[in-house]
Write a structure and sequence with these properties.
The complex is a heterodimer of chains A (about 190) and B (about 240). With about 190 residues, chain A is mostly helical. Chain A has helices spanning about 15-25, 25-50, 50-70, 80-105, 110-115, 120-130, 130-140, 145-155, 160-165, 170-190; one strand spanning about 10. Chain A has ten helices and one strand. The longest helix of chain A has 27 residues, at about 80-105. In chain B, about 30% of the residues lie in helices and about 25% in strands. Classes of the chains: A mainly alpha (about 190), B alpha+beta (about 240). β1 (about 10) of chain A pairs antiparallel with β3 of chain B, so a sheet runs across the interface.
Chain lengths: ~190, ~240
């Protein structure tokens, strides 16, 4: 029954087409984009904030960015998924840092609340790696690269905090994050 | 002096403070190589499988309201009495907005026309919310195709997903048919045989959002006006046509 080819002529309602409609102020297209990417975005926001209420605020802020920024989205430069998740991640990190600095002001630095949980990290790496292709790419990371990437991306630490946490010079932390991304990029591109 | 070129990885993972972020953004504007590198890193990060978690259903309306400032939902919500101040966080308002959105007119815009979807699209479904949900389900299908349709000169749109076997008709400003009459959609088989896909009447402002079975082997759709309840075969004037 399912025809592999498109019989009907018209515009394919691809995610980037939908974002184009959002740029024109189309609320239904906006809802469609939300429905397509909110679950991944919420998962990411939860991973970084580890708090359902914060993650919901983050999602709201990020999708406000989607609505406002749809006009400058360049489908040739990025996939909609990468773009939306980038917006979610940035808002999540900003939120975590804001919460953290509020805590820092109101009480003495409580080491426990800032220690990225290692069990959580292991779980995250497992969950992320559901897809074989990406799992293979992640396997190419050295443990040091993986740790640096996890602290920066999953835990939302600045590269200074990553350096302090790993007790390495700032330049080393920076390099490890970049090397991790380079390795993943190369691994994923090899795979294509 | 920071070597901005070297900070692209940290930038991509949002691992910079505000000052560094601005510095890298200034650098990016003038460095195409770094922009390419950043784009590649973002794709890498975006492709890491994230455990998808369904957000609470009421969040969608809150997000749409916050992003679009959709006054229809906001106005409906504003009719509600104020809660005690301790309870007045945005978060606590969400369920109220959901209820308001379900009942309220919703801004509906597909294919470049804005209108309001308010009255339920009888007799195909029961509420504005259900109509939007049904249309969105078709619109977010992997094989969704948007096809322009000429229905009485209005800027109607048809969304078809063959995988779902559904076709969604969306229109605004569709004239209300003569008293008691309705619009009827017909599937036209390759041999010309017509079978009814369903009947509808426009809601307020001539808004239509209906989802019908597309049929297995449909070559085109035809819309006619018919007596109340529709006809067994087309009798009225053809007002619209959608061809594969």
């Amino acid at each position: 029954m399912t025809s592999p080819s498109r019989r009907w002529e018209g515009e394919s309602a691809s995610p980037s087409w939908l974002v184009g409609r959002v740029a024109d102020g189309d609320e239904v297209a906006f809802r469609a984009v939300y429905r397509l990417f909110a679950p991944a975005g919420y998962g990411l926001a939860l991973r970084v904030t580890r708090d359902a209420h914060l993650a919901q605020d983050v999602l709201q802020e990020a999708f406000t960015d989607v609505w406002r920024g749809a006009g400058s989205f360049d489908p040739d430069a990025a996939s909609v998924r990468a773009w939306v998740l980038m917006l979610v991640h940035r808002r999540a990190v900003d939120r975590v840092r804001r919460e953290q600095s509020e805590r820092d002001r109101s009480q003495a630095w409580a080491a426990s609340s800032h220690q990225p949980g290692h069990d959580h990290a292991a779980e995250v790496v497992e969950l992320r790696a559901e897809h074989r292709r990406v799992r293979a790419a992640l396997d190419r990371l050295s443990p040091l690269q993986r740790e640096a990437l996890r602290l920066a991306y999953d835990d939302g630490l600045t590269h200074r905090q990553v350096a302090a946490h790993l007790d390495v010079p700032l330049g080393t932390a920076k390099t490890r994050i970049r090397d991790a991304l380079r390795t993943l990029r190369a691994a994923l591109e090899d795979d294509l | 002096m920071i070597d901005n070129h070297d900070l692209v990885g940290a930038y991509a993972t949002d691992a910079l403070d505000d000052e560094e972020r601005s510095a890298v953004e200034a650098h990016l504007r003038g460095c195409a190589a770094c922009r390419d590198e950043l784009a590649a890193y973002r794709e890498v990060l975006g492709s890491l499988p994230t455990r998808a978690v369904a957000p609470p259903p009421e969040l969608e309306d809150r997000v749409v309201l916050a992003a679009t400032g959709s006054t229809t939902v906001a106005d409906a919500a504003a009719d509600r009495p104020e809660r005690p101040s301790a309870d007045r966080s945005r978060r606590r308002r969400a369920p109220m907005l959901l209820a308001a959105a379900a009942a309220a007119a919703m801004v509906f815009a597909l294919g470049g026309v804005a209108g309001r979807l308010s009255a339920p699209v009888a007799p195909v479904d029961g509420s504005g919310r259900a109509a939007v949900d049904a249309v969105l389900a078709v619109a977010t299908a992997a094989d969704a195709t948007f096809v322009p349709a000429d229905v009485m000169g209005t800027d109607a749109r048809v969304v078809i997903s063959e995988e779902m076997g559904k076709v969604a008709f969306v229109a605004t400003d569709l004239p209300t048919p003569a008293k008691g009459e309705c619009y009827q959609v017909w599937r036209v088989a390759p041999d010309g045989t017509k079978s009814s896909a369903g009947v509808f009447t426009p809601g307020a402002d001539g808004v239509v959002a209906v989802v019908l079975d597309a049929g297995a082997d449909t070559a085109s759709f035809v819309i006619t006006t018919e007596p109340p309840g529709g006809s067994k075969e087309p009798t009225g004037a053809m007002v619209g046509q959608v061809t594969a």
